[in-house]
Specification:
alpha/beta, four-stranded parallel beta sheet, two-stranded antiparallel ribbon, Rossmann fold, UPRTase/APRTase, globular, single chain, adenine phosphoribosyltransferase activity, transferase, adenine binding
């Protein structure tokens, strides 16, 4: 199920080197992490997915849950890689059946997510995958939705984790 990466530090550096910063997007003061160079580089994209697979420990997830929209990319690829199902968590109004919804805070506003009420069986083992962890609002909302479904949450997996500094730490 898991990949073996001989030189993890080199693999992480490869992936990090393919993510570019876009200042002041989508609002002034925000530094957007652009993953399109990573996605466009076949070896870099494969390495990113292999790193996610390598980090899996404990019981295998039955479902990978990806959050719209960039979580779909990595989540679906990881699900395929490990032989799990994939469940999309979407923005409001995008899913065609009965849904649970959850509002959450972004680092620059508010938003909401939805998941089909029949997306998985009670107790199914799940792993939440997204490209980026910033304030944790999206991840928390996705976790709240899975708890409403009765899922067993194995954890979270991200390509990028933002660190914030306060004036005392700068």
């Amino acid at each position: 199920m898991t990949a073996t990466i001989e030189d993890r530090d080199a693999a992480v550096a490869q992936v990090e080197g393919l993510i570019r910063d876009i200042p002041d997007f989508p609002k002034p003061g925000i530094i957007f992490k652009d993953i399109t160079p990573l996605l466009g580089d076949a070896e870099g994209f494969k390495t990113a997915v292999d790193l996610l697979a390598e980090d899996l420990q404990g019981p295998a997830p039955e479902y990978i849950v990806g959050t719209e929209s960039r979580g779909f990319i990595f989540g679906a690829a990881l699900a395929y890689r490990i032989g799990a199902g994939f469940i999309p968590v979407r923005k409001p109004g995008k899913l065609p059946s009965d849904v649970y919804a959850c509002e959450y805070q972004l680092e620059y506003g508010t938003d909401a997510l939805e998941v089909h009420r029949d997306a998985l069986a009670h107790g199914a083992r799940t792993l939440i995958v997204d490209d980026l962890l910033a304030t944790g609002g999206t991840a928390r909302a996705t976790g709240d939705l899975l708890r409403r479904l009765g899922a067993e949450m194995l954890g979270y997996s991200f390509i990028i984790e933002l660190g914030f500094s306060t004036p005392a730490n700068t």
